[in-house]
From TrEMBL:
One of its GO terms (molecular function) is mannose-1-phosphate guanylyltransferase (GTP) activity. This is mannose-1-phosphate guanylyltransferase. Keywords: GTP-binding, Nucleotide-binding, Nucleotidyltransferase, Transferase. Pathway: Nucleotide-sugar biosynthesis; GDP-alpha-D-mannose biosynthesis; GDP-alpha-D-mannose from alpha-D-mannose 1-phosphate (GTP route): step 1/1. The keyword Cytoplasm does not apply. Coiled coil: none annotated. Its EC number is 2.7.7.13. Residues 2-233 form the Nucleotidyl transferase domain. Belongs to the transferase hexapeptide repeat family. It comes from Rhamnella rubrinervis. InterPro entries: GMPPB_C, GMPPB_N, Mannose-1P_guanyltransferase, NTP_transferase_dom, Nucleotide-diphossugar_trans.
Amino acid sequence: MKALILVGGFGTRLRPLTLSAPKPLVEFANKPMILHQIEALKAVGVTEVVLAISYQPEVMLNFLKEFEEKLDIKITCSKETEPLGTAGPLALAREKLVDGSGEPFFVLNSDVICEYPLKDMLEFHKSHGGEASIMVTKVDEPSKYGVVVMDETTGKVEKFVEKPKIFVGNKINAGIYLLNLSVLDRIELKPTSIEKEVFPMIATDRKLYAMILPGFWMDIGQPKDYITGLRLYLDSLRRMSSSKLASGSHIIGNVLVDESAVIGDECLIGPDVAVGPGCVIESGVRLSHCTVMRGVRIKKHACISHSILGWHSTVGRWARVENMTILGEDVHVGDEVYSNGGVVLPHKEIKASILKPEIVL
């Protein structure tokens, strides 16, 4: 089987992190976002993953080369020279997806995190005999998403409505699809929306089916949702593989700590924290609801909450960083500095407090 991951554009919603790395390579729970998906695809028998990408393809492929060898899965790239929407990239990658086997192929949005029940989706797709299967998830306020109106007994989709103006249901498109090769015949090589044009057409022909996604789901393409997604992911990890989580008297709730990280005395870490490789957390530090990426150093008695600390940054003694502060790569926060929602571009030194949310250029 094959799969296509829609890598997309410039990752502007996750800046300043995406100023240093393409969004799919930004770590989530201590591994690149896209690696969560590639590992899940490999687990259900996918042998080749095609990345539909328009931004820094060389960086992506060079980085993923080691994982291609480690996971024994082929990773190739289909580069857009102009934006093609969410369906055009499928037409562009047609030759890579069609290999004569006749097998359906997966399509995933690159910034979706969940438990990836792809084996169940394969069985569902084979059982209904339609042309396309999509995963949907239930939400409280679906109006800003593509809403799916479906028969929950059979899974048959009655209507697919992209960003409706009125409330028409509580199930939204989760950004994970399993498509027959015949779907490619419906897509022209031009900017096309799979949500607005392709799925409504398949639904009209009564060949679109939806599977309700079990477990959690989150689009982690922006900082607030990234932090929420981390909480949901770690909670899922607790249920499915709790041995991967940290434990000890200094740990509260669900915490993921890379084995190469160094944690000092009298720290209090958690809940919902990921500490990456090579990090140094000095004594007396308090961490909660945050991600600390590779090579970060947090000095004595600093307090970090609801924030993301980019690669190789430093937080000074008694500093306080909170309220969705995002530090880009190699940012240095001084001793006793307070950051209230600062978004700091890479390679900056912060000597004065940031008292209200703002971008620090």
